[in-house]
């Protein structure tokens, strides 16, 4: 039996390499997506698109309901047991199918109230266009978690890259059709295009890893996934909400144009944040296996080594990104208004740097079977973010939103450390 190996092993480095390459596709697609929308349709349409994206991401957590995390943890504990993995997968997909259907219906029913709340009528049209994509997103999230739990990280990287490549391809096809540039509010159709095709590819990949015929105990995994998902669901919703709190609150206090300007900074910062998510995705199945087998000393060494290297690496990344950002924006956008996004970007990067050593291990409570406590940790982070944005945006505008988000990220480290120490008896 092959034991999972952490930072420093050849397999781990290869997996990281593949996922960093996938991240490059994500980054290039994200930049191209925002630049093309900003240049072809203007800041206001870009603001509408990103407000639709914020709602889409929020409802995507309803669509998956934490079932993906249950599947990942359960499969990672014994990935070599194919009949067990098959039962886990089928049980999770049955539950995800029901949740995705309900979330998509709610998304459609609430599109007008959301648009009214944001005072942006175009948001309703965008949510309508994105609704089928939301349905497939919930299923794809579970399928990707199965791939992750099996530590098929190269496949995970390829499918992640495929998602963002398809989003960009969908935009290009839409632009070709919308020659008059009158249908910008419906640009969120790109999510429907990408998730539908990705679903077909993932069904083939996961199907190849399963054992047929399926055992009858898949039904036992449905309530198990539901119980785990119920406790972790809040964390997923709140985490995605937290990533968009600044955008939504700028939408409340400021204009669609201000949202469009800020989202450029947020988009670049989030792209760099994904470097840490790559590490987290690779560490999750390793932590789950180590925790299940009680190899806590090995896990402590893994975390300590990963934290040192991550802080060192992100310090260089943050310094370089902050220095080069103004020149990049000048070359990418003709509209000088986008230059206002530099100060928010600098604040966001400082916040990411402050927590970077802990983010790769930020789901340790989930991997330890403590989804409720993970939800409490995320809830505390969101509460800090909301309060700080409410206080700072009216006084400092876009820079206030970024500073508030950065401070909440930094403070969240201390919340996580306290809960891990109390629940796992682990100095984190």
Description of the structure:
By secondary structure, this protein is mainly α. The protein has one domain (10-424). 83% of the residues lie in helices and 0% in strands. The protein has helices at residues 10-41, 43-64, 67-77, 82-109, 111-117, 122-149, 153-177, 189-209, 218-253, 256-292, 296-332, 342-355, 364-367, 371-424. Helix 12 (342-355) packs across helix 14. The model has no long low-confidence stretch (mean pLDDT 88).
List keywords for this structure.
14 helices, 428 residues
Profile the largest sheet: none
Poorly predicted sequence stretches spanning 5 or more consecutive residues: none
How many extended strands? Answer: 0
Q: Class by helix and strand content?
A: mainly alpha
What count of structural domains? Answer: 1
Instruction: Please count the helical segments.
Output: 14
- Principal-axis shape: globular
- Proportion of residues in extended strands: under 5%
Element-by-element helix/strand order? HHHHHHHHHHHHHH
Helix content: over 70%
Distance between the termini: 28 Å
Radius of gyration, in Å, reads 21 Å
Average pLDDT, all residues: 88
């Amino acid at each position: 039996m092959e034991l999972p190996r952490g930072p420093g092993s050849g397999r781990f480095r290869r997996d990281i390499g593949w996922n960093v390459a996938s991240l490059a596709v994500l980054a290039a697609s994200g930049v191209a997506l925002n630049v093309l929308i900003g240049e072809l349709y203007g800041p206001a349409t870009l603001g509408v698109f990103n407000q639709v994206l914020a709602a889409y991401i929020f409802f995507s957590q309803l669509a998956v309901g934490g079932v993906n995390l249950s599947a990942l943890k359960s499969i990672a504990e014994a990935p070599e047991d194919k009949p067990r993995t098959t039962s886990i997968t089928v049980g999770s997909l049955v539950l995800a199918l029901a949740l995705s259907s309900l979330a998509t219906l709610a998304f459609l029913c609430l599109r007008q109230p959301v648009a009214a709340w944001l005072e942006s009528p175009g948001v309703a049209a965008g949510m309508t266009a994105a609704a089928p994509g939301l349905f497939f997103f919930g299923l794809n999230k579970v399928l990707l978690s199965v791939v992750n739990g099996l530590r098929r990280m190269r496949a995970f990287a390829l499918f992640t890259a495929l998602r963002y490549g398809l989003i960009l391809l969908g935009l290009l096809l839409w632009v070709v059709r919308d020659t008059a540039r009158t249908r910008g509010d419906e640009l969120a159709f790109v999510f429907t295009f990408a998730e539908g095709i990705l679903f077909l590819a993932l069904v083939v990949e996961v199907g190849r890893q399963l054992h047929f015929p399926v055992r009858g105990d898949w039904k036992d995994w449905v309530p198990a996934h539901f119980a785990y998902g119920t406790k972790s669901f809040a964390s997923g919703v709140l985490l995605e909400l937290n990533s968009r709190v600044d955008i939504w609150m700028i939408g409340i206090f400021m204009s669609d144009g201000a949202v469009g300007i800020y989202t450029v900074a947020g988009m670049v910062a989030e792209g760099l944040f994904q470097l840490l998510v790559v590490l987290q995705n690779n560490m999750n199945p390793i932590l789950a296996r180590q925790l299940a087998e009680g190899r806590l000393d090995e896990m402590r060494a893994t975390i300590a080594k990963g934290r040192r290297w991550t802080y060192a690496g992100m310090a260089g990344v943050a310094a370089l990104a902050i220095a080069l950002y103004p020149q990049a924006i000048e070359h990418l956008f003709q509209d000088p208004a986008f230059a206002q996004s530099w100060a928010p970007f600098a604040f966001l990067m400082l916040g990411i740097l402050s927590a970077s050593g802990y983010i790769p291990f930020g789901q340790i409570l989930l991997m330890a079977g403590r989804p409720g406590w993970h939800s409490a940790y995320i809830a505390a982070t969101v509460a800090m973010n909301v309060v700080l944005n409410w206080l700072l945006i009216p006084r400092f505008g876009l820079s206030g939103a970024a500073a508030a988000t950065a401070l909440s990220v930094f403070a969240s480290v201390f919340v996580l450390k306290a809960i891990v120490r109390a629940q796992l008896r682990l100095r984190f």
